[in-house]
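In response to the reviewer comment on reproducibility (Comment 2.3), we provide here a single inverse folding case reported in full, input and output, so that an independent group could reproduce the run without further information from us. The structure tokens appear first.
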């Protein structure tokens, strides 16, 4: 049988598909930019370790992640903290009061920084888009209910 028709198990990690990159501008906070740079440093170390040990799966994963984070670093647009807390902007921390009495606080950040469980949401999320440009006292549609903006912190 020709070698062309035989697939080695080791060949499965030669190349992994690229991680999808968002079509939105890559806005980042100073903390987000630092996190990207720390991730790149760690990935370079992971790649070198995988290369030294001959770990083909580790090389493929590190190479894929390096391509993604290198592209994200190259496209990163650092956004300075808002000048005033008068209205909601990228980087603002916003507290809303929902119709059912729940009080929720989020910081609006870049896509790669967003972790809703930790209180950060992406600036392209529906809730963040509804909040942008609004002031304390205004009511916005947040998900399936209305919510009043009760505090904005920069």
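Designed residues, in position order:
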């Amino acid at each position: 049988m020709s070698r062309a028709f035989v697939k080695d198990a080791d060949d499965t990690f030669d190349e992994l598909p690229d991680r999808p990159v968002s079509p939105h501008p890559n806005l980042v906070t100073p903390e987000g930019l630092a996190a990207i740079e720390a991730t790149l440093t760690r990935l370079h170390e992971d790649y070198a370790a995988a290369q030294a040990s001959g770990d083909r799966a580790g090389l493929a994963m590190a190479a894929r992640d390096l391509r993604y984070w290198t592209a994200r670093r190259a496209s990163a647009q650092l956004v300075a903290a808002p000048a005033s807390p008068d209205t909601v902007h990228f980087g603002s921390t916003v507290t809303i009061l929902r119709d059912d009495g729940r009080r929720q606080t989020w910081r609006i950040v870049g896509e790669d920084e967003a972790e809703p469980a930790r209180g950060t949401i992406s600036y392209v999320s529906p809730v963040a888009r509804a909040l942008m440009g609004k002031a304390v006292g205004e009511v916005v549609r947040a998900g399936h209910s209305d919510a009043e903006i009760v505090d904005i912190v920069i």
